[in-house]
Design brief:
By secondary structure, the chain is α+β, with helices and mostly antiparallel strands. The chain has one domain: Nuclear Transport Factor 2, Chain: A. Helices cover 38% and strands 41% of the residues. It contains five helices and six strands. Strands 2-1-6-5-4-3 form a six-stranded mixed beta sheet. Strand 5 and strand 6 form a beta hairpin. The radius of gyration is 17 Å and the shape is globular. The termini are far apart.
Length: 151
């Protein structure tokens, strides 16, 4: 399978994921997909390390529960053989108060036989938590760790 078809698989996956089409998103994934979203799982329990396609439907359901509108824009995509890297700007409208939280995610995929076998993702979870809470945590956090940083 070529780089162009692997890129298209990832674009199809992202489109289905943010549209809430769990069946189409799962169809892009290997049965034994291994995924890690590097984020504090105490705050984002549906993220972290997951295995198998079921995580896709679960993640979509959780996001749909929490967010009324979910949008994404692919701002970068590159592929070489079975590897695809994507940067995506995401905007999620919270159901409880209508505020929009925005973040940029970097995701790295490995495909096998045209399906996503491995997924690794990163985003600024500190910034996202501040947005979800609706207030700045940086000053409070900096004050609490300043002594530890000086040692």
């Amino acid at each position: 399978m070529g780089s162009d078809s692997n890129k298209q698989c990832i674009l199809d996956f992202l489109q289905a994921f943010y549209a809430g089409d769990a069946a189409a998103a799962m169809a892009c994934c290997d049965d034994e997909i291994d995924t890690i979203t590097y984020a504090p799982v105490d705050l984002f329990p549906h993220l972290g390390h997951k295995h198998g396609r079921a995580w896709v439907a679960e993640a979509i359901a959780i996001q749909q529960q929490r967010y009324a509108l979910r949008k994404h824009d692919v701002i970068f995509i590159a592929a070489e053989d079975s590897k695809v890297a994507v940067m995506t700007h995401c905007a999620l409208t919270k159901r409880n108060d209508g505020r929009v939280v925005q973040f940029t995610e970097a995701a790295f995929f490995t495909l096998h036989d045209g399906r996503i076998a491995q997924h690794r993702a990163f985003f600024d979870s500190f910034d996202l938590v501040q947005q979800v809470l609706g207030h700045d945590l940086a000053d409070e956090f900096a004050t609490s760790v300043r002594g530890a940083m000086e040692r």
